[in-house]
Amino acid sequence: MEIREVVEADWPQVWAIIHDVVRRQETFTYDPAMSEGEARGIWLERPPGVTVVAVESDRVLGTAKMGPNRAGPGAHVSTASFMVASDARGRGVGTKLCEHALDWAKSRGYAGMQFNAVAESNQTAVDLYRRLGFSIIGTVPAAFEHPTLGRVGLHVMYRQF
Predict the structure, then answer these.
(1) Which of 13, 69, 102, 143 is the least crowded, having the fewest Cβ atoms under 10 Å away?
(2) Under a CB-based contact definition with an 8 Å cutoff, are residues 76 and 111 in contact?
(3) What's the CATH number where 40 sits?
(4) Under a CB-based contact definition with an 8 Å cutoff, are residues 106 and 70 in contact?
């Protein structure tokens, strides 16, 4: 598996992953009816951020975007988001993407990485982030409307470098 910056030819596969993940409404706070154009505007980062893909041969298995969490006085803390194709889950794609994002942020001098909205019901992601050194800083109760579990909390998670 190779992780590299996204190129235009990757977009149809990236969009398919985003569309599937967002439509399920289980992990991301994005509007499930968002258009491809809206997804492109949200997912494709502008410098100093970057969007990457995890690929095998010509197949995009997952994607990540990373950059500063906030502008101005908050720009020293990074953030990242990850999506993995449903049939590629459980193969370490998310782990590799998160490790790549952490290396990217450290190499650019960020003080840490913050995740702003991790659904507490997304135990796979919570466990992964904890394994990679993140802590739950707080949880906003009932802030995420899960399609089968109802309202669940959204964790704010942080790892200092």
Answers:
(1) 143
(2) yes
(3) 3.40.630.30
(4) no
State the DSSP H helix or E strand holding residue 16, giving kind and residue range, or none if neither. helix 11-24
Q: What is the pTM of this model?
A: 0.95
C-alpha distances in Å from residue 16, one per residue of 1, 33, 157:
19, 14, 27
Instruction: Yes or no: say if 21 and 27 are a contact pair by the CB < 8 Å rule.
Output: yes
Range of the domain at 39: 2-160
Output the CA–CA distances (angstroms, integers) from residue 150 to 30, 95, 109, 143, 147, in the order listed: 16, 28, 39, 10, 6
Q: What is the pLDDT of residue 149?
A: 97
In Å, what is the CA distance from 134 to each residue of 5, 31, 61, 161? 24, 27, 24, 10
The percent of residues in the chain predicted with pLDDT above 90, rounded, is 100
Q: How far apart are CA 139 and CA 42, in angstroms?
A: 24
Cα separation of 111 and 105, whole Å? 8
- CA neighbours closer than 13 Å in the CB half-sphere of residue 24: 13
What domain count does the chain have?
1
pLDDT tens, position by position, 31-44: 999 999 999 999 99
